[in-house]
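Pasting two entries for a bug report.
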Amino acid sequence: MPVPEAKQSTIWLHLDFRPDDQQAEVERFLRVAARRVDSGQGSSPWVVLADPEGNEFDVLRPEEPEPLQRIVAYPRRRTPARRA
C-alpha cells in the first residue's frame, strides 16, 4: 500500500534478480512501473530499481558468479527501541 511519507527505515527484504539478459529484464521492469534508483552504486555491474511502493531490488548480470547465500533473501529481526 503506497504511503505519502518517504522511506524512513532500512529495507527488510531485498531481492536480487539474475536474468539471462540484464538489459531486457531492466526494460521489462521499467515498462511495468519500476523506476531507476541511485543508491550510490556508481558504476556497479548491477542496476538498482524500485517498485511503485519504493521497495528496492537489483538486476544483476548473468555472467557474474556469486555464492548462493548472497541471493537468498531473509527478513531481519527488528530491535525494539529502548525507553529512557
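Entry 2 (this is the one that rendered wrong in the viewer):
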Amino acid sequence: MAERLVVDVSDLPPGGLREVKIGDRAVLVCNAGGRFHAIESRCPHAAVSLAQGRLEGHVLECPYHGGTLDVRDGSPQSPPIRRPVATFAVRAVEGGIEIDAGAAGGAGGPRCTT
C-alpha cells in the first residue's frame, strides 16, 4: 500500500525547504517558485540530509559538498553528485499538498501537479 502524507505548505515560501517523514523515509518538500516538489532528503553522494541545502529556482545545492540536484526530477546537475535522488508524486489537495511516497522515481520519475 502506498504511503501518503498531506503537508500544509501555506507557510513555506518560494525557495523554502521542509523535511517530513513518511513511514521510514525522510522526504524534502521544496517550493520552487510556487511549484512544490518532493525528493528523497538524502544526498546520493555523501548520504547526508539535504534539509539545510539552498534552493534557487529548481536547483538544490547540497549543504556539505556543494553538488546540485534538479528538484523537478531528481537529476544531478553538478559534481560531486552523479546519481539522481528519488522523487515523489505531489498533488494539490485541500489543506496543502499530498505526497505519495509509494510513487518514487528518479530522473524522469513522478512530477508535481501543483
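Dev reply: Rendering is fixed now. As a check, the viewer should reflect this: The radius of gyration is 13 Å.
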